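so im writing up the methods section and need the Biotin carboxyl carrier protein of acetyl-CoA carboxylase record in one place, dumping it here so i stop losing it
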Amino acid sequence: MELKDLKSLIKLVTDTDITEFNMENQEDKIHIKRGADKEYIQVTAPVAPVTAATPAVQTVAAATSTDSPAVDDRYDSVSSPMVGTVYRKPSPDAAPFVEVGDIVDAGQTLCLVEAMKLFNEIEAEFKCKIIEIVKDDATPVEFGETLFLVERL
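--- predicted struct ---
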């Protein structure tokens, strides 16, 4: 393969969303990769029921149950519909969508959850008051994790 052909391939990869390109023929073998290495997201699997014969599992179960914040029964929670990263602001230099004490209408954006480079708006399903912001800006979130505690109005 000639240098100009190789430069064309590199330009194609950098001008598109392609992050990895492989090509192999009888004469050449080309592998072009751009960007950082793969991002690994650790997901904790549910813990099986604990028996007396497995004290190590019991310790893990006890530790994971204390990691999640206690949810007050008086309030409704707004949960993440996906695994991703929570962003409380539309851009790094902008003000947050909501603060504690704000009254929001149904359909108003509360935050963004970025998953696979797509930003998904998390909206209020009903008119409510923000009681607590559970997740900080730019932190990872799992499916079903509480983002906000709200009081219905």
